[in-house]
Each structure stands twice: as C-alpha cells, then as structure tokens.
Amino acid sequence: MNAEAFVAELIRENDQLLARLAPAATLTNEVAGDLAPVKLLRAALKNEIEASEIAARWLPTAGSVSLKLALARQAGDEAKHYALIETRLRELDDNLIGFNPLATGYSPMFQYLASLGSDVERVAAQFTREAIAVVKNRQFIELCERAGDAATARLYRDVIEPDERFHHEMGVKFLRELATDAEAQALARAARLRTIEVAEELQNLAFARAKIHHAPGC
Ligand SMILES: [Fe+2]
Ligand SMILES: [Fe+2]
In sequence order, what are the residues at sequence separation of 6 or more whose Cβ sits closer than 8 angstroms to the Cβ of residue 102? Predict the structure, then answer.
C-alpha cells in the first residue's frame, strides 16, 4: 500500500478507535462533583510538560531537518500551553505553590513514547496522541462551559485546541513521508495501537482513582 493510502486508512480506523475515549454519559456527573476545571487543569500541566519534553527528546535524533524543526515548534507550543494554563489557574485562585507536576514521576504515556526508537513509530504515536487530545479537549471545553467557566473554555477553543490539531496534522504529514513500505507501516500501526491502549489504561486509572474522565490532552 502506498503511504497516502496507508495514512488515509489509519485516520479512518483512528476515528473508530477514538470513539472508545468519548464517554459522554459521565460528563454530567463530573460537573456536578468536585471536578471543577481547576483540578483538571492541574492534570493538564503534567500532560503539557511531558509533551514538551518528549518532543525535545526526539529532536536530536530526528532523521530530517524538517522533522527537527517540527519537533522544536511542538516543544515550544506545549511549553506555551503550560504557561497559559498556569496563568489561568492563578486567575482561578490556585497559586500552585509547592506544586510540581512531575513529583509523582513521569506517566506511563511518557515512558512509552520515550521508548520508541524510530521516527516512523514516534510520528505515528504523536499523530495518534494529538488526535486523542483533540477528542479530549472537545469534551473538556464542553465541561468548562457546563461548569460556567467561559474563560477556560475560550483558552482551549481559541488557542490550545488549534495547536493540538496542528500537531496532529504534523503527524499526518510526516507519516506520509515515512510510512512508505510494509515494514515501516507495520511499525506505525503497532505504535498507533499501543498509544491508544496506553491512553485508555490511563483514562481508566484516572477515573478509578479520582473520578476524572475528562482531563484535557495535548
Ligand atoms: Fe499542548
Ligand atoms: Fe500537542
């Protein structure tokens, strides 16, 4: 299969797989409980620092200048998201004193991504992770709106979500360049699947521990 057809197939399959991450029925419970956007924004800080760091880690060994530059831009975007969320938390009276998003260590998603050794696997994982982010952020915007937090909803809708969508599209572009033969396509497919599995495991864990189902992604 040529790379173009392969990526089109992956996008189609992803849409079906990502439906598993859209448990809309739980949204009302969360808004009613103590899951104000503040708690979810703290979870978002961890995602953003990890996303920034993983892009920076992949940069030195990336096989092309264009991929290096894309990763550099992504590392910067995720750092910008971190700063914007921090500012929003302060506006919501969370001064974050003593808060270190990495105090409990890196997440299983970070560890999985850090274990990937080839550009095609990394790009496939990123393409998937950012597609997940778009789904999660859409849910989070809805949660913020239902909770009456219009400013956080606006931050996600106008700034963060468009960047995450761009990161996903970056993944699409590089997958088309890299997933050119059966071997590369098998690696990409496996990385895509494992990324969704790790995201699902993390979502189930967050729900079991803290009843969080709609933390934003990045
Ligand atoms: Fe982000
Ligand atoms: Fe991102």
Answer: 46, 49
**How many whole angstroms separate alpha carbon 180 and alpha carbon 136?**
30
Q: How far apart are CA 144 and CA 216, in angstroms?
A: 11
Q: How many Å apart are CA 99 and CA 84, to the nearest integer?
A: 16
Structure tokens at 18: 């990502």
Give me ligand 1 centre to Cα 44, in Å. Answer: 8
Task: Quote the Cα angle for 28-211-158, to 5°.
Answer: 60
Tokens 């914007």 sit on residue: 84
Q: How far is the CA of 200 from the centre of ligand 1 (A)?
A: 19
E strands, 87-217, in order? none
SS3 96: coil
Output the CA 51–ligand 2 centroid distance in Å.
Answer: 7
Ligand lying closest to the C-alpha of residue 168: 2
pLDDT along the chain (218 residues), means of 10: 95 84 55 66 94 98 98 98 97 94 95 98 95 90 91 96 94 97 97 92 79 79
- pLDDT value of position 37: 81
CA separation for the pair 80, 27 (Å, rounded): 27
43 Cα to the center of ligand 1, angstroms: 12
User: Residue 23's pLDDT is what?
Assistant: 57
Q: What's the DSSP call for residue 218?
A: -
- Tokens standing for residue 168: 């996903």
The pLDDT assigned to 180 comes to 97
